[in-house]
TrEMBL record:
<dbReference type="InterPro" id="IPR009057">
    <property type="entry name" value="Homeodomain-like_sf"/>
</dbReference>
<keyword id="KW-0804">Transcription</keyword>
<protein>
    <submittedName>
        <fullName>AraC-like DNA-binding protein</fullName>
    </submittedName>
</protein>
<dbReference type="GO" id="GO:0043565">
    <property type="term" value="F:sequence-specific DNA binding"/>
</dbReference>
<feature type="domain" description="HTH araC/xylS-type">
    <location>
        <begin position="233"/>
        <end position="333"/>
    </location>
</feature>
<keyword id="KW-0805">Transcription regulation</keyword>
<dbReference type="Pfam" id="PF12833">
    <property type="entry name" value="HTH_18"/>
</dbReference>
<dbReference type="InterPro" id="IPR050204">
    <property type="entry name" value="AraC_XylS_family_regulators"/>
</dbReference>
<dbReference type="GO" id="GO:0003700">
    <property type="term" value="F:DNA-binding transcription factor activity"/>
</dbReference>
<keyword id="KW-0238">DNA-binding</keyword>
<dbReference type="InterPro" id="IPR018060">
    <property type="entry name" value="HTH_AraC"/>
</dbReference>
Amino acid sequence: MLDAALLVDTNGKPLLNGKVTSSRDWNVVNAFCEDTYTRLSAKPLIRGSDPDATIRMLRIGRIKFSRFCFGTPTRAEDFDPAAGNIIVVNTLRGGLRHPLDGNAVADTRSGDSYVVDCSRIDYWNIADGHDLQLNLTIPHALIEAVAARWYGFVPDDSLWRRRLVFGRRQSAWLSLVDYATRSLEARHDGIAHSVIEQRIEEALCLELLHNWAREAELSLEVGARAAAPYYVREAERLMSDHAREAPSIADIAGRLGISARSLSEGFRRFRGVRPHEYLGDRRLDGLRQALLEAPAGQSASAIARSWGYVNLGVMATRYRARFGETPTQTLVGARSR
């Protein structure tokens, strides 16, 4: 599993043909790390040694997949949190040492997966020089959006600050990563069909969230959602039921007999988002469903206007950020099925 990941496609054609995919120059390797992961400090453990690095990277949606090794014993540290990235290290061979909670460490071997949110907690690793990794770099904001969409809230640092090992050899996670890499085509150096690409991106985020929360002994299904007070849950119901009408937050709060400030504080505390963000997402979800069910002859702009959208440019930008495609692409895709 993953032996040919990012090397060739399923037809045996080379990926990244003509691109720089290896290097013995520290400057090149450090630049690759900064572009792929974040700015960091890499220090060879053998004084004066040069890297013999594998540096392959392709994107699936907003997720960066990288086949990587320094090729010499190396300590990588000082991962810059400003990039806002979560890193998943899947060890293909050799070994790496990573930090866990407190002063504990873990040594990962072939088939092990490790996750760290570099935007929330410090990170370092030590590679033994015989290692090879298939890594995923996922924007924290993307994972937050997927959590909010599927679980109804954004987890807090009780999840994001957990550095842990999950999955072992032949895990469902690695099978999904393997499927994702097998979907890459050499002629595109990517996935040809945007809808498939979006679904793979979302499935990877959901599977990661599931594994991360399970190992952290947190429940995404009943955790913060169940703890939310009645007025937050009722506000969510009202926003979902009346999304097309675009009620104001003040109106929602008024129906519940509370202040808009109290409603905002409740959402911040129990959902990790602001009420207008939640309402905006429900409106986009409703618009998407309307586009998928639209009869022939209706345009995307007409459907959007029927949902009360006035500034179609702003709406389209937010729609693309949420679903990875434009409203028109959703409409065309639905009619081509």
